[in-house]
Each structure stands twice: as C-alpha cells, then as structure tokens.
Amino acid sequence: MINKLKLFLEMIDFEHTLFGLPFAYLGAFLAVKGMPSFHDLFWITIAMVSARTAALCLNRLIDREIDKANPRTRDRVIPAGKLSVPGVWIAVFVFLVLLFYSAYQLNILCVKLAPLAVAVLWVYSYTKRFTWWCHLILGIAIGMGPVGSWLAVTGSFALEPLVLGAAVAFWIAGFDTMYACQDIEFDRSYGLKSIPARFGEEGALKFSAFFHLLTVVFLVLNGLLLKLGFYYYLGVIFAALVLVYEHLLIKPGNLKKVNFASFVINRYVGLIIFGATLMDIFI
User: Fold this and answer.
1) Which terminus of the chain is less hemmed in, N or C, by CB atoms within 10 Å?
2) What is the C-alpha separation between 131 and 173, in angstroms, rounded?
3) Are 263 and 246 in contact (CB under 8 A)?
4) Phi first, then psi: what are they for 254, rounded to 5°?
5) Cα separation, 16 vs 253, whole angstroms
6) Would you list the DSSP string of 129-176?
7) Residue 134's closest CA among 126, 142, 146?
8) What is the distance between the alpha carbons of residues 265 and 19, in angstroms, rounded to a whole number?
C-alpha cells in the first residue's frame, strides 16, 4: 500500500500543488482584506487539493495511450502499468465527491458552481486533440482557484477576482507553452494540437513570453482594482523578474533547462505574490 501511495503521488505530481494553492488562498484573503476563518481556509484547501488531484488523474487516464506512444512519457505510472486504470478511475470519483462535499461546507454558490469547475477540468484533457489553445484552457482551469476561493468566503459573485484569475490563467499558459516545446515533433506526428506544434519552437517561446507579459499586466490591474499598496507592487516586480529570468534560460534550440524553468522557478511566482499581498494587508 505504501508503494502504491508513492506511485499515486508521483502520478499526480503532488508537490506541484504549490503552483495553484497560494493564488487560491490569495483570493480568500483579498475578499475579506484580512484573515479568513480557519473553517473557510480548511475547506478551500481540501477543495483545491481534491480538484487538482481529480484533474491530474483524469488527464493521465484520458491521455494514457498518447503517453504510451510518446518516448518522453511512456514511463509514467499508468502507461508503465504500475497503477491500474480502474483503480485510478475510483480515485477520480472519490476526489470529485470530496470536492463537492468541500463546496457544500463552504456555501450554496460553491455547490452550484462546482459542476462547472469539474466540466472545465474534464474537458481540458481533450483539448489538445482539437485546439492549440489548450494551454490557455489549462490556465483557465487553474485560474478558477482564486475566483472560487473569493466566492467561498463571500458567498456572492463578484467581478474583482476575475482579474486575478486572468493573471493566473496567463501565467499557467505561459509556462505550459514553454514546457510543450519538448513534444513538437511527437505532437505533429500524432496529430495533436499545441502552440509549439502549430508555430514551432521560436513562435511558441514568443507566445509564452507574451502570456507572461499579460500575467504582469493583470497583476498590476488587480492591485489597482483592489487598491493594494507598496508591498504588493514590490511583489509584482520580484515575480516579473522571476519570469524574465525563466525566459532568459530558454532559447530556441536549447531546451535543456525547460523543466527547471517551468516547474522549479515558476513555483516561486505564486509564493512571492501571496507573501507580498499578506504584507500589504497586515502591515
């Protein structure tokens, strides 16, 4: 059982939860301009982890034949036969149930919107089959996090968190586009859609840079809309510098550091913005 658990955590890249969770918390803190209740933070955490786990399981299940055919991914847990397909499907539905229960613990609006969130998470895994905008759809799926946490603590819909959600969406789309450059030839040969497959490596890196420029723009707009102060904008500057450094590491024809740039460096962006915003709220 311990070995199966390790394989399951490997499959869902559990440590990468750091990507979306700080921004999800951020939506809650900004909604009340202070400290949300422990109850709300606890169930937001359960909802986010459940949604991400179900989404990763779905992605690995839906793409298992593609992963098996791709030399870069054929050793993943499901293509390698280390976990059974029925077992992972059971995990999907267990975590979806947990997601809906978390929404119920928060408020009725979250319950009503939970099916929409699940639909976006489910549909994303099919998008590479028909549109090269799949990277942005992934971004939208994760960008729902801060919007959902805002609604979780307020119980009412608002336009303000959509700006932060857009920043997250373009941030995710930017590094996912960069990461997908590794699979250009395979995607083309397999008939899959992606920005790198459509525009080539150089074009994809330009898209990635543009998406990250929009990330910074929306972070600034978020600060203006919510009347945030010095510490927040200092955090935006540091996050922008991290993104610039990421793009300096990756050049057309040289993807050696793409994993480092996409997953190691990027995790600091959300943490920087989250920390800076807390300083802005509480100091």
Assistant:
1) N
2) 14
3) no
4) -140, 95
5) 27
6) TT-TTHHHHHHHHHHHHHHHHHHHHHSS--SHHHHHHHHHHHHHHHHH
7) 126
8) 10
The pair of three-digit structure tokens given for residue 65, joined into one six-digit string: 């034949």
User: Residue 97: in which H helix or E strand, if any?
Assistant: helix 85-106
User: HSE (CB half, 13 Å, CA atoms) of 95?
Assistant: 23
Place of tokens 């709220």: 281
C-alpha 94/C-alpha 136 separation (Å) is: 27
Q: Show the tokens assigned to 152.
A: 């979780």
Q: What is the pLDDT of residues 176-226, one digit of tens each?
A: 999 999 999 999 999 999 999 999 999 999 999 999 999 999 999 999 999
Q: 141 with 122: CB under 8 angstroms?
A: no
**Spatial distance between the Cα atoms of 207 and 268, rounded to a whole number of angstroms:** 21
Dihedral (Cα; 219, 208, 142, 169), 10-degree rounding: 40
Amino acid sitting at position 8: F
83 secondary structure, DSSP code? S
Q: For the whole prediction, is pTM greater than 0.85? A: yes
